[in-house]
Amino acid sequence: MKETSRTAAEITIESESKTTAAPSMKAFGFLEAVAKAQRPLSILDLSVLLDIPQPTAHRIVHTLVTEGLLIREPGSRRYGPGERLTNLSLGLLSAAVRSAPRQAILRDLSEALRETCNFGVISGNDLVYLDRVEAAWPFGLRFEAGSRVPLHCTSMGKLFLSYMPAETRRRLLSTRPLHPYTANTITDPAALMRELDNIRKTGISTDNQEFLAGVVCVAVPIHTDNGTVVAAIAVSAPVARMPLQQGLQHIPHLRDAAAKIQDTLTSSKATKRAT
């Protein structure tokens, strides 16, 4: 009887564990779907994507919004990543980027170019530096990892804008004015669109003293295997030391470093190297 009772208790615990795990995994599926989407998703979108009844989807979304993991897009019935989910994602990315191989790649690039090199991702309406290796020059630019800068006037920011779906880009740019940080900042929407089209064609983005007077930057994208741009890498320096044309000569080095970082992000390639 004692053995039977103990077995029954174990069965009860296992049953309760499965019951609590199922909703958790459903919620995780919602977060995963939103994270992978290139646009905000409605409850109907999530219901169809995850094959979950709409009432259940509505309840899960409401919980995730309450917890700050999702946020309702203003003026719509669609949902995107909330601040808590964004911060979690950035924390994970920052930890991953600072792993030995990626940090070494960025450091080697900085040493080869003798200039400051940056690794960044898009977060909401900003570019976020996830990692940065400063050049060994006095009076350098002192941005900490985690610093946020505008999209429309930075090399990595414009790179991300150029690869966005047109509607996503239009919506994002409409949320704030194209502030003129310097005399070179592109503030005309039509001119910025032409600039972004050219960046998309060449895969090269520049900041010609558009964010900080006297500073130029050159950036290239980092793709996943399916072609999605997930990050960018850039070199930046005072124009007196690195004129823009000289910065453009660093593109082969930047692309080589981007390919190496992309390689670390791809598990299949890492597995091939190990074998």
Task: Kindly describe this structure.
The chain is α+β, with helices and mostly antiparallel strands and 275 residues long. It has two domains: 2-81, Winged helix-like DNA-binding domain superfamily/Winged helix DNA-binding domain (Arc Repressor Mutant, subunit A, Orthogonal Bundle), CATH 1.10.10.10; 89-274, Beta-Lactamase, CATH 3.30.450.40. The protein contains eleven helices and nine strands. It has helices at residues 2-36, 43-50, 54-66, 83-97, 100-113, 155-162, 166-173, 189-202, 244-248, 251-265, 267-274; strands at residues 41-42, 70-72, 78-81, 116-123, 126-133, 148-150, 205-208, 215-223, 229-238. Helix 5 (100-113) runs antiparallel to helix 10. It is globular and about 60 Å long. It starts with a helix and ends with a helix. The model is unreliable at 1-6, 8-21 and 267-275 (pLDDT under 50).
Q: Which consecutive residue ranges, at least 5 long each, have pLDDT under 50? A: 1-6, 8-21, 267-275
Strand order, main sheet: write it out: 6-5-4-9-8-7
Individual helix count: 11
- Estimated structural class: alpha+beta
Distance between the termini: 53 Å
| DSSP strand tally | 9
Give the helix proportion (percent range).
Answer: 40-55%
Write the CATH homologous superfamily of the largest domain. GAF domain
Per the CATH scheme, the topology name of the largest domain is Beta-Lactamase
Give the name of the CATH architecture of the largest domain: 2-Layer Sandwich
For the report, how would you describe the main beta sheet? 6 strands, antiparallel
Radius of gyration: 23 Å
Q: On the 0-100 scale, what is the average pLDDT?
A: 81
Q: Under the CATH scheme, which class of the largest domain?
A: Alpha Beta
- List the domain count as a whole number: 2
Query: What characteristic shape results from the CA principal axes?
Result: globular
* β-strand amount: 15-25%
Following the backbone from N to C, one meets helices and strands in this order, namely HEHHEEHHEEEHHHEEEHHH
